[in-house]
Amino acid sequence: MAVAVAMVAILSCGAVVVASEAVGRSQPQALHLALGNSADAYVVSWLTLDETRTSTVKYGTAPGALDKIATGSARIYDHVGGGFNHFVTLDALPANAKIYYLVGDAEGGFSDVFFFETRRAEAGKAPMTFAIYGDLGLDKGEPSIAAINSHGAQGEYDFVLHLGDISYANDAIISHNSTHDYEEIWRDWFAALAPTMTRTPYMVMPGNHESWSRSPLSGIQTFNFTVYKYKFQMPGAAAGSDTSMFYSFDYGLVHFIALSTETDYDGHPIDFYVKQYKQVNWLRADLAKAAANRANVPWIIVMGHRPVYCTGSPYSKDSVPTENSATLQAWLEPLFKEYRVDAYVSGHAHRYERQFPTYRNQPTSRSYTAPGGTVYLVSGGAGNVEGHSSGGADAVWTAYKNITDFGYSTMTVVNATHLEWQWRVSATDELADAITIVSDHDW
Ligand SMILES: [Fe+2]
């Protein structure tokens, strides 16, 4: 049947061009994978502009033998062009398997055949690599999208973690390079990352740009993270959070916790959010559970959109967190110490900052070997229409900073005590910063 996703050409100069190939209104587009609610489950998602009779995935372990069928459902929100967001869970997949799949509906049309690799059976023993970054849109995001696709399409990442501010669709009215509206930017953004997202689980968490559209025509319809909640399905159910706004999961030797720094804690910055008062209690319980399981899953990494330690206004002054960073510090830092969280990774500030392991505004060490505290990393400069933010003077906990290049980060978990963190300049894909955290997690 017809092609599922808009064609993406990756040019040698690193630019990504999203072809304006028309996708039929009932044909699948915006395909993306995510990790499911158990280690052997994956969620396959896509969009159709018109309703289809079914939401179907045909899959199997050979491209010519898609002999299994899974079905799911579609959900809609009240916004022109929002379409039908289909979600199908593939359960009980074998480890170490290449799963070929297509998505769609017999009448509406099916996609091309794609494939992804399931978790390795030895996960936790062999090194695993994850890409991690925040604040990635289309305009000015092209170099990062090209670099990420060059690895993601080759299966080099176990999965991707996007730390909020996804697509910058809500900046449509200030975008200089796009004449597209809110929903078109979302669709083009998915199409641009299709080489990665059809092969590699793409995990997300909410940023301020997901809170609503700035367009006066769509503010109400997109209000309160509606589009984020309808376009993505994260494994909150398995983590006891029951939402894609905040969740956790184990993968190999790491317990990952994704927070909403936008909502659901005292002093949260998105004032109009309908508070549920669930996240604070959930986080403490989840950390306690993860700490009790440390013999099996030694690393605990927490992620959220907004930073705790980051230089310059409005994040800090004279090395002391200010405004929302101070609010986050008051909430998170005692928990990070109590449960010995290895690292907190954020975006939001459009730059790269690596801090020394830090506690109460002071480095606990100037080495990442036996850090004695949580390592704070800001990787918010993947690229978007808003460009870079400059930061301020170095703080006492500043180790390295880049405020001029768009870039993205990766983590490689080598074993129970060694974790490699790298940051690359997207335009050249050259390694610009790297550390190895060496920890017995017992400080
Ligand atoms: Fe942000």
From TrEMBL:
Domain Purple acid phosphatase C-terminal intervals: 373-433
Domain Purple acid phosphatase N-terminal: residue ranges: 28-118
Gene Ontology molecular function, alphabetical: acid phosphatase activity; metal ion binding
Reaction(s) catalysed (UniProt annotation): a phosphate monoester + H2O = an alcohol + phosphate
Keywords linked to the UniProt accession: Glycoprotein, Hydrolase, Signal
InterPro entries documented for this protein: Calcineurin-like_PHP, Metallo-depent_PP-like, MPP_PAP, PAPs_C, PAPs_N, Purple_acid_Pase-like_N
Signal peptide: 1-19
UniProt xrefs under Pfam families: Metallophos (PF00149), Metallophos_C (PF14008), Pur_ac_phosph_N (PF16656)
Enzymatic class: hydrolase
PANTHER family noted in UniProt: ACID PHOSPHATASE TYPE 7, PURPLE ACID PHOSPHATASE
Family: Belongs to the metallophosphoesterase superfamily. Purple acid phosphatase family.
Official protein name in the record: Purple acid phosphatase
Native organism: Thecamonas trahens ATCC 50062
